[in-house]
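Students often ask why inverse folding is considered easier than folding. One informal answer: many sequences map to the same fold, so there is more than one right answer. In these notes we will look at a single instance of the problem. The structure comes first.
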């Protein structure tokens, strides 16, 4: 198996361009494949076409919030490790959905901590 076949893929779903750009640059530099989505709807589309291992998901986006994306993942039994990244930690209403996520990180976040969280989740998913 080639190196690129085992490279983990991350989808960053956040409506803040700065956050998307920082995370894409950071994780690309760590040799992950990285795609971004500006909205919940785009995240759902890319879950089907990009097939990421990890979804870094903002809870508050304009067209469809992160909670709705989590419901879609749950209802369709999608195999993706979800790490919520939000500036509004008290906004998720369905705590049962929150229990289906791997971790919950509040903005502003520490990139090293986020990286170690992603590494742990990737190790669980790929190996």
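Output (designed amino acids):
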């Amino acid at each position: 198996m080639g190196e690129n076949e085992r490279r983990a893929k991350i989808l960053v779903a956040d409506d803040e361009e700065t956050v998307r750009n920082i995370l894409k640059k950071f994780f690309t530099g760590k040799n992950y494949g990285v795609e971004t989505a500006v909205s919940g709807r785009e995240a759902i589309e890319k879950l089907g076409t990009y097939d990421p291992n990890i979804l870094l998901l903002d809870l508050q986006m304009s067209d469809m919030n992160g909670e709705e994306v989590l419901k879609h993942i749950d209802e369709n039994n999608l195999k993706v490790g979800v790490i919520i990244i939000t500036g509004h930690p008290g906004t998720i209403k369905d705590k049962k959905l929150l229990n289906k996520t791997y971790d919950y990180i509040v903005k502003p976040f520490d990139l090293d901590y986020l990286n170690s969280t992603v590494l742990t989740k990737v190790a669980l998913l790929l190996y």
